[in-house]
Amino acid sequence: MKRITELKAPAYFIASAAVGGREEWQGPLGGSFDFIDPSDSFGQSTWEMAEAEMGRVALNVALRKCDLSHSDIDVIIAGDLQNQCVASAIALDSFGIPHIGVYGACSTCTESLMLASAMLSLGSYKRVATLTTSHNLAAERQFRAPTEYGAQRPPAAQWTATAGGAFILSTDDEIINENRRRGLPVSACITDFLVGRLIDGAIKDGANMGAAMAFAAADSILSYFEESDLTPRDFDLIVTGDLGAVGSRILREILKEKLPSAVSRHEDCGLLLYDMSSKDVHAGASGCGTSASVLSTHFLPMLERGEVGDILFLSTGALMSQSSLLQGNSIRGVAPAVHLKSLTANNKRSSDKISAPCCNNDEVRISDTEAYEKQPSGSNAEGKPGYTRPDSGQISENNGESEVRG
Amino acid sequence: MDIYTNEGKKKLIKENTPRSTLGKNLVKSFLIGGAISGGGEALRILLLKIGVAEKQAPVYVSLTIVSIAAVLTLLGVFDSIARHAGAGTLVPISGFSNAVTSQAIDAKSEGLVLGVGAKIFSICGPVILFGLAAGVIYGAIYYIAISFGW
User: Fold this and answer.
1) What is the pLDDT at residue A346?
2) CB contact at 8 A, A201 and A318
3) Which pLDDT band holds residue A360 (cuts at 50, 70, 90)?
4) Do residues A144 and A154 touch, judged by C-beta distance below 8 A?
5) What is the ipTM of this complex?
6) What is the pLDDT of residues B88-104, one digit of tens each?
7) Residues of B with CB below 8 A from A146's CB?
8) Which of A108, A143, A205, A306 falls between 20 and 30 A from A354, CA-CA?
9) Strand partners, A99
């Protein structure tokens, strides 16, 4: 069976937006977020509502960026970390956009991009949006312990990101040309994807999800290159979602033996989002907002600037619940992959050009993130708290708290 | 390398998962836990000096530690201390207080009865259940011993 699906027409990213909380703002990518609320509350009284509000802001900002209204979106594919995807459901009800809820734990971002590009290739939809959010404190409450509960976290534990990302995709030439006429960049697309298999992570430790997901990531990467005519040398980067330090180390060990040329190209969103020297994040970021926000703030701009040509992008999901772990079930991992292509980069690169700016060492080090700190970070380089993109009539700042109208 | 069997995966995970820094954690939890217990003992001596009955003094000490831990939890400080202290704040009655208070704060948004009321003991439930059970067993043994005149 063929596992890679080649899209009839590439799905173009016509806009993306990322929102985040305090930790994300203080991280190396903090200045590139479109909207930050350092209080993490997004003006809401509960963390669950804060996550919903975060999703609403993300979609609003993405719509504003490409000058569209909610009625221009044919379908939205949305997911988050809460039970029954209730955060995105609350976030989106006022938009009136036909909605598909997806849950892939931390793999939701790639899962929804994959589904969006597949739906677009049917030809009957013009614009499909995706939305992915996760909130640290809402996730703590649901999966672990109360937010103020005092406990020591083991070094392999990861920090659920308070972050979200919205993407708007289209295959329609008219829309793309219209966007370009208005000076809005369209410079990255999805050309093909691979649906991940469920892989038993062999552990029952909810504080070591990165390790459980590493095998799913390895399976998807190995399957992709087994079937594809492309080799890892044809990609500038192979990006995983939230393996963190432990999972990345395991993945690189596997790749070192099975697919050595992929090792130096591997990067992990979970290691890019935070300042890894910060004590609290331990092994890095997790949660589906991680890959969504890092894709929007870091990798899409890189593709737009033409610094990289091809990225194999996998979000990694750890499928489990508190009950499943207590009942003795191990964590299952899944890692869908999409092939992201830059339209601005020179795609005929020679094999010696490897543009992975770091990670030439198979050891995951704290300094992996340092390479990114000096990078230009969009128009909000000073990373002011509160509202950071003053172009919207829909969103305004209100005493440091976010407020979204309409 | 075997990545297709559980044994192979477990081996790979074990080799790559860092362990907690036991030495540092032990020292920190000993110092913080010791400070809490030492403070409690100092308070007990003080209470005895000002004329509190010997049976009541430990109760006042427990109440004081529970109250301080509850207030620190409300202020959002307790979890920052516990992150370093580990068992140092968990084992004294401060850990019990934090487990109850933090759950109460969290469940507040879900209502007073089905939220706070139903969930407040969900973390410290084992302590209450097994603590009571141990008390009952101890009481039974004590009763039997007394009635046999031991």
Assistant:
1) 63
2) yes
3) very low
4) no
5) 0.88
6) 999 889 999 999 999 99
7) 102-103, 105-107, 123
8) A108
9) A76
